[in-house]
């Protein structure tokens, strides 16, 4: 291995940051910031605001990776990936958060649909990933437990 | 208190014997001919110890009278106590094994059979079992919780136990409380350990990848902090041993000691390793040395295929026979080997033609009076303890009754700790963690500092006294109860219920989070109200460090003052929905339904 994981991650992160900028510019250009969705207090309102009335289908092809129990509710790692074709966007909802929509990723054509982020959650909640592919919506949901900890044997 | 006719007869039997024979005569008649004569079987012998909690010398350890199973776990191993456990495993009541495995008639039987464990006795037994079978065909596996639990392990930051483990000849270990020192200390301890420290489920956090020195990582690319598995050739076959550290370490214990590491169960990653060692390493058997806790082991065994044996610990369940779990790849045998050096699991395997054909298992109780001490280990233990004897040997108070912790709710020693906290901190309510470690003191015996340290010695011993709303107290109680009674094992953390002082409550384990705890009532009869503020004291906070004195100093002050460890009121909850549960015997409070 000519490059260790640490340097690789740094390279990827740098690439990611650039990609982020790339995403940011069209956002500003198109003024497509989903303000209403991000500010919605209910998950259903946020989903509706983001995707309209299109129906959500639960799919095993949406791979949602989150811990069963959060080690730290302030930074819970969540990864969403899918092998589906023509993915346009992926979004993450934390049902019991004051503003459930945590992130929306626009996936440019030809990009691997595989995103990771950290989300904050104050209490045990469902996490839902929504993938928009070929104009249709697919989802996966997992409950993440948040505990005060301690008292372990 | 209902006692079955058999329990009663059995109690009379033991009492009768104890009364009739002089103690020395008992010692002579105690020697059970077959207890330590283990016939060899097959071509590989695995010796398994776990959760000794740094008990270098023999101790008393009473098994629980409350170990409730919920949902699918009701009435199944390990959620069996007393005569229900004996019936399930076909152990003769009144036998020395029955005393080792249960709490029945504990005080009298403990006087009769003596202390258990101790590294010098463990060493003699392990050597005997290795020599009789062939050292080259034997492995000694330690499931962890070895480097914490005593005054000397605290003072040496675990290094005393590294030395003791090396002298014992531990080949492979994994960990949990090993992770309650600072990262650098843990790495130093592992460096000094002669065997291999394995954990497939501990990774570096991605944040730490950027900022920390990560040269110590076992696998820089995968982000593995420790070696995940080891391939051993012995008895003419190849065996993979995979380490599974306690997956909830950063939740149950302070994350601040190990900021750069992250833990979980990781079924998928375990499956990848199992498939890989089977296809590429061509092993004949796959063993997981686990610190999951037995309920999690059982669940994991049903989800992951291709594991032959899980040798587990954490929940301190001394199970005399394995549980057979079916999964998509066949069967996995789950063993759990108790705690405190009380048992040495001895598993003989006949491995031929690429698989385990048959096995023999004995969970051998280590009765210290029946096994001579190994002289070199004794010398090492002396060397470790001598600098600290003044501290350890201080006599504090006499036990007015049997003092123990283990069980789902307040043990008698917990109550002493809770009473001490309340008195010294001048608080209405005290909370004490439901650890499963902590040894036993017989009625009438002296409680010295060492026995207090057995119950309290960890690396975050600071106490607190603070104001807390009734609603907050309820939240804590519900949260801990859910870590114990959630029907999904992967959402349990393996500790027992938080111990309380100054109030009683009703607990219904079979309900959901938020609904298990009710009728919280102060000792003066006043109902605890959600909006009212109470003065609460406790210790072992996992968040930020508390400011108060160490818990052992608080308890020692109290005991010095009282000269007698006596309990006026045991704050153990009234139970609902568990009547007839085989995980309950001789319960000290009311069981409503």
UniProtKB/TrEMBL annotation, chain A:
Residues 48-151 form the Ig-like SoxY domain. The keyword Signal applies. Keywords: Signal. Coiled coil: none annotated. Signal peptide: none annotated. It comes from the Bacteria. This is Thiosulfate-binding protein SoxY.
From TrEMBL, chain B:
It comes from the Bacteria. InterPro entries: 5'-Nucleotdase_C, 5'-Nucleotdase_C_sf, 5_nucleotidase/apyrase, Metallo-depent_PP-like, SoxB_N, Thiosulf_SoxB. One of its GO terms (molecular function) is nucleotide binding. Keywords: Hydrolase, Nucleotide-binding. It holds the Pfam family 5_nucleotid_C. GO terms for biological process: nucleotide catabolic process. The keyword Nucleotide-binding applies. The keyword Nucleotide-binding applies. Residues 411-543 form the 5'-Nucleotidase C-terminal domain. Belongs to the 5'-nucleotidase family. This is Sulfate thiol esterase SoxB.
């Amino acid at each position: 291995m000519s490059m260790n994981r640490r340097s690789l991650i740094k390279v990827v992160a740098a690439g990611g940051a650039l990609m982020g900028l790339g995403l940011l510019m069209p956002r500003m250009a198109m003024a497509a910031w989903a303000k209403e969705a991000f500010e919605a207090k209910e998950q259903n309102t946020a989903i509706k605001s983001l995707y309209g009335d299109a129906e959500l289908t639960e799919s095993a092809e949406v791979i949602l990776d989150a811990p069963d129990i959060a080690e730290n509710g302030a930074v819970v790692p969540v990864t969403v990936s899918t092998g589906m074709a023509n993915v346009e966007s992926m979004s993450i909802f934390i049902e019991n958060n004051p503003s459930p929509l945590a992130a929306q990723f626009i996936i440019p054509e030809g990009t691997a649909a595989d995103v990771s982020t950290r989300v904050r959650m104050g209490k045990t909640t469902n996490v839902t990933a929504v993938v928009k592919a070929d104009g249709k919506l697919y989802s996966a949901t997992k409950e993440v437990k948040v505990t005060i900890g301690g008292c372990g044997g | 208190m209902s006692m079955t006719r058999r329990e009663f007869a059995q109690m009379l039997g033991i009492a009768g014997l104890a009364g009739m024979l002089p103690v020395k005569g008992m010692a002579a008649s105690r020697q059970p001919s077959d207890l330590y004569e283990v016939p060899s079987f097959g071509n590989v012998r695995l010796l398994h110890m776990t959760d000794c909690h740094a008990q270098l010398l023999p101790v008393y350890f009473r098994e629980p009278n409350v170990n409730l199973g919920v949902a699918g776990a009701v009435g199944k191993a390990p959620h069996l106590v007393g005569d229900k456990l004996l019936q399930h495993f076909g152990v003769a009541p009144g036998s020395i094994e029955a005393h080792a495995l249960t709490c029945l008639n504990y005080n009298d039987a403990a006087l009769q059979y003596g202390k258990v464990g101790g590294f010098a006795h463990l060493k003699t037994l392990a050597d005997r079992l290795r020599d009789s079978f062939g050292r080259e065909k034997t492995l000694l596996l330690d499931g962890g919780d070895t480097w914490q639990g005593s005054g000397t392990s605290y003072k040496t930051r675990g290094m005393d136990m590294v030395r003791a483990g090396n002298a014992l000849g531990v080949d492979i270990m994994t960990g949990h409380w090993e992770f309650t020192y600072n990262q650098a200390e843990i790495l130093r301890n592992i460096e000094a350990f002669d065997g291999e420290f394995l954990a497939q489920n501990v990774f570096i956090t991605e944040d730490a990848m950027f900022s920390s020195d990560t040269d110590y990582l076992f696998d820089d690319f995968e982000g593995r902090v420790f070696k995940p598995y080891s391939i051993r050739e012995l008895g003419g076959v190849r065996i993979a041993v995979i380490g599974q550290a306690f997956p909830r370490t950063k939740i149950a214990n302070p994350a601040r000691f190990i900021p750069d590491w992250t833990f979980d169960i990781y079924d998928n990653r375990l499956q990848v390793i199992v498939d890989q060692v089977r296809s590429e390493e061509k092993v004949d058997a796959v063993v997981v040395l686990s610190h999951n806790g037995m309920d999690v082991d059982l669940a994991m065994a049903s989800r992951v295929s291709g594991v032959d044996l899980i040798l587990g610990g954490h929940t301190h369940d001394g199970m005399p026979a394995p549980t057979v779990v079916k999964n998509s790849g066949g069967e996995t045998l789950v063993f759990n080997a108790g705690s405190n050096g009380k048992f040495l699991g001895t598993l003989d395997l006949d491995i031929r033609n690429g698989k385990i054909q048959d096995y023999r298992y004995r969970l051998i109780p280590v009765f210290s009076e029946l096994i001579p001490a190994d002289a070199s280990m004794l010398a090492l233990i002396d060397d470790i303890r001598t600098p600290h004897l003044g501290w350890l040997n201080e006599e504090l108070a006499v036990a007015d009754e049997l003092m123990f912790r283990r069980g789902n709710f307040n043990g008698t020693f917990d109550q002493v700790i809770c009473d001490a906290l309340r008195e010294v901190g001048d608080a209405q309510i005290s909370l004490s963690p439901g650890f499963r470690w902590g040894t036993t003191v017989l009625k009438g015996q002296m409680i010295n500092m060492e026995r207090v340290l057995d119950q309290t010695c960890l690396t975050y011993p600071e106490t607190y006294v603070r104001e807390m709303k009734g609603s907050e107290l309820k939240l804590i109680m519900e949260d801990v109860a859910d870590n114990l009674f959630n029907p999904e094992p992967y959402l349990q953390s393996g500790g027992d219920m938080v111990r309380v002082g100054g109030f009683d409550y009703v607990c219904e384990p079979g309900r959901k989070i938020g609904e298990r705890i009710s009728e919280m009532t102060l000792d003066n009869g006043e109902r605890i109200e959600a909006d009212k503020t109470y003065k609460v004291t406790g210790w072992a906070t996992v968040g930020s460090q508390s400011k108060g004195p160490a818990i052992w100093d608080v308890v020692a002050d109290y005991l010095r003052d009282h000269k007698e460890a006596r309990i006026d009121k045991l704050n153990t909850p009234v139970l609902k929905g568990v009547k007839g549960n085989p995980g309950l015997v001789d319960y000290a409070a009311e069981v409503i339904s």
